[in-house]
Design brief:
The chain is mainly alpha-helical. It has 7 helices and no strands.
């Protein structure tokens, strides 16, 4: 099962989100291990987020973004302080120009991330942009 998770991460890294999603969905059906399920849910959230960017950009279809949020929420049920899951949700809202929830989730992600982590600056910048856009 962990080998499948490694493969989903590989497919994510080469932007083959369809294959990563296929493997992740298959893996969920084959395990009862809560930690592994949480890791798979995060992987699915991230893959749906990335795939959703393309689809939403073309025709405004947010169904993949909704799946990203759904899988992030499952992660948060097990790991309420997962800055990655909070960031995924915030990014979905950011990408759909829903500034208020974007700011909320990105601010929550900031709370649980070490300021020395390179992602911290990215999250802060995204939140700052959302705040500026909301105040326009």
């Amino acid at each position: 099962m962990k080998e499948i998770l490694k493969k989903t991460n590989y497919y994510y890294s080469i932007h083959n989100f369809d294959k990563a999603i296929e493997l992740g969905e298959m893996a969920l059906k084959k395990t009862n291990d809560k930690k592994l399920i949480t890791a798979i849910n995060f992987s699915l959230s991230s893959n749906y987020l990335e795939k959703g960017k393309e689809v939403y950009g073309k025709d405004g279809d947010n169904s993949l973004y909704k799946l990203s949020i759904q899988f992030s929420r499952k992660v948060l049920e097990e790991m309420p302080y997962s800055w990655q899951a909070l960031c995924n949700i915030g990014t979905v809202y950011f990408n759909t120009k829903n500034w208020e929830p974007a700011i909320f989730y990105l601010s929550e992600a900031e709370k649980y991330l070490n300021k020395n982590n390179p992602y911290y600056a990215v999250i802060v910048a995204e939140r700052n942009i959302a705040e500026r856009m909301m105040n326009k």
